[in-house]
Write a sequence for this structure.
């Protein structure tokens, strides 16, 4: 068999990065300014009695964002004929993982750590660990691919314990299967995504009650495709 592995470290810094402002930070910046003169006060809407009715949280150019992490990959390929099997079979196992070390954003003179959190309104999960495990078995005209997708647990950003007792979202694992058969330029594929029909975890946000950009909302999804190539 043949084993290939790689490990890559990255550290990125971005000035004038586009991001979502903290609504609590908007209130703090406004009320801490002399005579409520800060620009952040313009994002606060009040009714005739002076009560706050809404806050604008549109994306903006935050001052600076920095992130760092490690990408890990390993692949093992084994021709099963080397074990004495008569048919030409290949087994391949690939693991790809990402370890987030930190994700920090600097705005309005303050630093906010977003690593190991999930923001249901905006960018979704910045879990410490994410990984995929892919196992493929291929013959002369057919192949079967199994993919396990893992999204690690994360703290809910801006969660209020008095409103939402679920301050941390549990890890989620999905399992996908795809089989294909091809001969004379015709290929038929049959697959299922989220085989175990895992539901998205609950994340209180007043809208979707989870994170659309992170989790599978469709549930178990069966698909097929027929293609021809000369």
């Amino acid at each position: 068999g043949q084993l290939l592995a790689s490990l890559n470290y990255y550290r990125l810094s971005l000035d004038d990065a586009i991001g979502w402002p903290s609504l609590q930070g908007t209130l703090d910046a406004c009320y801490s300014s002399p005579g409520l003169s800060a620009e952040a006060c313009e994002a606060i809407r009040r009714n005739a009695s002076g009560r706050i009715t809404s806050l604008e949280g549109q994306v903006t150019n935050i001052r600076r964002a920095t992130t760092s992490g490690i990408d890990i990959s390993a692949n093992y390929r084994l021709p099963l004929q080397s074990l004495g099997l008569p048919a030409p079979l290949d087994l391949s196992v690939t693991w790809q993982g990402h370890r987030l070390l930190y994700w920090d954003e600097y705005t309005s003179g303050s630093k906010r750590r977003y690593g190991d959190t999930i923001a249901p309104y905006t960018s979704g999960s910045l879990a410490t660990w994410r990984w995929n495990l892919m196992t493929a078995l291929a013959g002369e005209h057919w192949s079967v691919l199994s993919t396990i997708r893992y999204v690690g647990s994360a703290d809910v950003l801006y969660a209020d314990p008095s409103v939402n007792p679920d301050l941390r979202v549990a890890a989620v694992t999905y399992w996908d299967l795809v089989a294909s058969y091809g001969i004379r330029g015709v290929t038929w594929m049959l697959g299922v995504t989220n085989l175990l029909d895992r539901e998205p975890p609950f994340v209180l946000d007043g809208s979707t009650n989870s994170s659309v950009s992170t989790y599978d909302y469709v549930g178990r999804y069966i698909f097929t495709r027929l293609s021809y190539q000369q």
In short: The first strand starts at residue 2 and ends at 15.
